[in-house]
Amino acid sequence: MDWLVSALGIALVLASAYDVFHTLLNPSGRGTISRLIFALSWRATRRARRLGLAVGPASVVAVIAIWAATQVVGWALIYTPHIPEGFAYSHDIDPADFVAFWEAVYFSGATLTTLGFGDTVPIEPWLRVLAPVEALAGFALLSASATWFLQLHGALARRRSLALRVSQLEEAGFAESHTQTPRPAAAVIIESIAEQIAVARVDYVQSTETYYFRDLDERASLSSALHAAWRIAEAALASPDAEVRHSGAVLDAALRDLAQYLHGAFLGGRRTEPPAAPEVFERYTADHRRGRATG
């Protein structure tokens, strides 16, 4: 049975590494474990007011913890058949006092976190090669986790900046008064919004997890600002100025593209025909207002 235990360990290590790769390095940003954790947490906290704001950050921590635990257990299963014969112990440790699997978990955890206490040392040649590989995997996991936090922070900052910009234009009555704005300036403003919408679309693809972060500030919430952006696009399309109409068409296309992605990825499924963009945005707003904290 030793080979079966080791094979199970290898499978766990590879499964965890595969999920890390697809979450952080794959352009689609869709790891199986991470997607499942975020989706389950989102559904569980839809009606919980205060918990709703924590679902995104808590899910990130939970996913990283699962990655680390899977790596520790996977490597431990690889080591278990070789305990105690494949290891040397310090003089005050009797390996007979410990269950082989838990001793392997201890050694695996110390190796993955690069603590290296030195009380348990592999002596079989291939184990002496394998232990540094696990330490390297642990360092890579730590680096990947830190990179993930930075990646999510950047995507969220861009999304909130876009929402705040649109909210400010809405408060200034831009959709109703853009005909009074110098037309070249109005076109530039509208196209800048379209560009930021496209960036948000890319961020949702590459950092899917950002969908599950709710915003306390309504003005910085994209789920609310998209309605205002749609009104700006409609007003621009009705403008008598050709340049403004062109910019409105660009914004309209960007919003429709984002609506199609939101429907396929989060709100309706890829196999169903997406409704009109305003209806998708209504569903998006409703999905994010559930569990929203107030104050």
Tell me how many strands there are.
2
Largest sheet: 2 strands, antiparallel
Mean pLDDT: 87
In helices, the fraction of residues equals over 70%
What string gives the helices and strands in order? HHHEHEHHHHHH
Structural class: mainly alpha
How many structural domains in the coordinates?
2
| Range of strand content | under 5%
- Widest β-sheet, arrangement of strands: 1-2
Radius of gyration: 26 Å
List low-confidence stretches: 291-295
Transmembrane segments: 51-78, 129-150
Protein name: Two pore domain potassium channel family protein
Pfam families: Ion_trans_2
Keywords: Ion channel, Ion transport, Membrane, Transmembrane, Transmembrane helix, Transport
What does this structure look like?
The protein has 295 residues and is mainly α. It folds into 2 domains: 2-144, no CATH class; 152-289, no CATH class. Helix content is 71%, strand content 2%. The chain contains 10 helices and 2 strands. The chain has helices at 2-24, 32-44, 49-79, 100-112, 125-171, 174-177, 183-206, 222-237, 242-267, 277-289; strands at residues 87-89, 120-122. A two-stranded antiparallel sheet has the order 1-2. The radius of gyration is 26 Å and the shape is elongated. The N and C termini lie far apart (59 Å). Keywords: Ion channel, Ion transport, Membrane, Transmembrane, Transmembrane helix, Transport. It comes from Microcella pacifica. The chain crosses the membrane at residues 51-78, 129-150. Residues 92-147 form the Potassium channel domain. This is Two pore domain potassium channel family protein.
